[in-house]
Amino acid sequence: MERAFIGFCRGRLEGYASALTDKPWLVDKSRGWSVHCAFLDAFYPNPKIVCMIRDPLDILCSMERLQETLRQGIDQQMLFIRHEDLCANPRLELERFYSYVGLPYYGNHDFNNVEQITVEDDEVYGVFGDRKIHHKVKSQPSQALEIFGP
Predict the structure, then answer these.
(1) DSSP character for 133?
(2) 33 with 40: CB under 8 angstroms?
(3) pTM (2 d.p.)
(4) Are the beta carbons of 126 and 35 closer than 8 angstroms?
(5) Contact status, residue 135 vs residue 113, Cβ threshold 8 Å
(6) Are 140 and 134 in contact (CB under 8 A)?
(7) pLDDT tens digits, residue range 73-105?
């Protein structure tokens, strides 16, 4: 049965790849493969996984899509909410949100008792953080110095 399952998995991946390209190699930039290496190894022994690491400052500098959005004026059709503003004044930011989407403000939000009812996709990757929602809406201290150093 294990052999059949491995054959099924390999066939599904090959079918997926062949629908995308006729090339013998497929590059998939999904972060998920790194934590599913043992699974992938079952039907593609010794898979080659490349993990791109980029300087966080360069990531911030290359926000071409946002820059293009601003240049085209599409930002006039978008609502931007800064995380820091949401934490500092959640009622005001939610009032802006409700106004933007054309709904009446729901005044019963309890910013001191927030319940997480969804699970973010990044949770499957483990190493990228747990994406837990805090029970109270408040600013969190920056971890920049701790992570990147002085």
Answers:
(1) P
(2) yes
(3) 0.49
(4) yes
(5) yes
(6) yes
(7) 776 777 888 878 888 999 998 898 888 888 899
